[in-house]
Structures are given as C-alpha cells and as structure tokens.
User: Fold this.
Amino acid sequence: MSAPRIAIVGATGAVGHEFLRVLAEREFSMGSIKLLASPRSAGQKLTFRGEQHVVQALADDSFGDVDVVFFSAGGEISRKFAPKAVDAGAVVIDNSSAFRMQHDVPLVVPEVNRAALAGHQGIIANPNCSTIILVLALQPLHQAVGLRSVVVSTYQAASGAGQRAMDELHRATRAVLAGEQPPKPDALAQSLAFNLFPHVDVFMPDGFTREEDKMLFEVQKILALPELKVDATCVRVPVARCHSESVQVHLQRELSVADAQQLFAATPGLELLDDPANARYPMPIEYAGRDEVAVGRVRRGRVFEPGLTFWLVGDQLKKGAALNAVQIAEAL
Ligand code: A2P
Assistant:
C-alpha cells in the first residue's frame, strides 16, 4: 500500500497540535496531510515538518482524497462526520467517546489489545486518556495473576479539557497572583488556580461522573473483562500536562512487589521509576512530552489481599491521545 493520505479533524486544538508533533517525531510515512477545523480557523496556517499548511473548514466533502482521518474535535463532530469519512472510503481513528462502546468498533491500546483491530468496520476508537494510562499497568497484572477489582483516583491536567481550559488555568493563576479575583470559569467546571475539584465531565444519576464511568466500561472492554469492577474518582488538578493516577488493585493470586516491578519494567509502553529512598517517583513535570507511562511507588496493598498499590503518570495529550492514535494507524 502506498503511503496513506492523512487528515486531522480538530487540527487547531490541544490534541490536534500534538498529532502534528507526534507524526513528525515518528517520521510517519504519509502521502499528504490535510488539516481541518471549524470555519473560525479556516485560512490559519500551521507548521508541519517545516512547511506551512493552511487549515480548512471541515465539510461533508472533506474526505474524498484521504485514507486515514484522526478525529479530535469532540463527540458531536465525530458522530456527524466520521460516518461520512468512512463512506468516502477512509479509516477513522476517533479520539472522542462517540463510538467507544459500540460493539462493532474496536477500542484499542496497541500494546494491550492490538488484535482487536482485525475486526474493524472503518471506525476505530481511541480510549479515554485516563483509561489508556491505567490499562497499560493493569494488563501485565491481569496476565500474570488475574484481577479482581480496581480502585483508582486520578489527578488530571488542565489540558485534558482542551486548549481553552489550559488558557483558562493560566489566566486564573495570573489573576490570583496579582491579588485579583480569578475570572469566572468557562471551559472548566470551577476555577482551577490554586484549587482542584472532583468533577471531570458530567455527573450521572448514581453520583459518579461520566469520566469515572468511562474508566469502568472502557477498561472492561479493552481487557475483555466484562465483570471487572473499577471504582474511579476523577479529579482535575492545576497541572498543565500529564495525568497522574493512584491505583489499588485486588489481585486473584499473590504477586510480590519485586515481581510486579519486574513485570512493569518489561511492559512495552511502561517505564518503572521506583526509588523512593532517593525521592525518585513519576511526576507530571518529568513525563510531559514523553511517550512512556511511568509507574512507581509500587507497594503491598493494605486493604486488598492479595493486592498492590501504585502510582502512574502519563502524558495524556501524547500516549493518552495523539500517540496512541498514531500507533493504531501504524498497527493498521
Ligand atoms: P477551532 O480551533 O476552529 O475551534 P480543544 O479540544 O483543544 O478545545 O480543540 C477542539 C478542536 O475541535 C479545535 O481544533 C476546534 O477547531 C475543533 N472544532 C470545534 N468545533 C468544530 C466544528 N464545528 N467543526 C470542525 N472542528 C471543530
């Protein structure tokens, strides 16, 4: 097959920019690249591999001359335009939640369930960013000793809510530092300057948020463990980039801390950084821009028997979004 012609829907957004960086970094072989966004951005120029490309307004007929389309402009845009791209003969890799739970749409983290790609019908879903980071660590445990249940708390960066949320965090922080009242939040649920809040996506009738539901249902689908229980609390924190997660797993069989560390260190996509005596553990500031998801603070659980407690950090714009989607395209 000749090098695929690529399009990015949402090219001007936080994940869109990351797509351009990742495609360049990995020297992704492509015939052409088409950058699509809302009519507001039409005519804007973005640099890719040293050349300027003009952003075009997304339209029904945007997909006639492309083979692979990365969508990252929200669920509504994906729902409306992804089927049009498939009808035009392209393969869609969708970063939104629109199709993730559809049974005929593979939900893929290539290091974990690459085989699921085989059955795709034109649309492949990229999982939620917090889910991608979590399943990379759950998969080796599941394979080695089996999982019973998972309790996870996330510490999610502002950029996970898009470029506008990141701008909002900067503006609010400047205001507080200047002794002023932060502006009313718009992209985020609350002002994030010198604050955090347990509210990512909307609340569901049972008191969990939709983000917390995604972590349950998407982990079940990716690991093919429909009975696995995942109790998540998702928190937005005033960090620019990289999500962190505190994880407690209840295992089927005993696994020592040393064996778990060895497993993690040998897992593609994961990096072990676990030297607390020297204050070495994963932090967002060190993993921003990195491909690997980092795991540290691995210890024997005190609540679940047998169980483990550990800490994860991953760049949610990179492995949690653009990189994972590009790896799916590479796997195809
Ligand atoms: P635009 O910059 O023109 O608004 P983020 O997640 O960082 O907020 O980015 C959202 C992305 O989705 C942006 O590239 C944005 O383009 C794009 N987008 C938003 N609304 C539309 C739309 N109606 N049609 C196409 N792209 C859209």
Q: What stands out?
A: The domain at 131-316 is CATH 3.30.360.10 (Dihydrodipicolinate Reductase; domain 2). The mean pLDDT is 97. The chain has two domains: 5-128+322-331, 131-316.
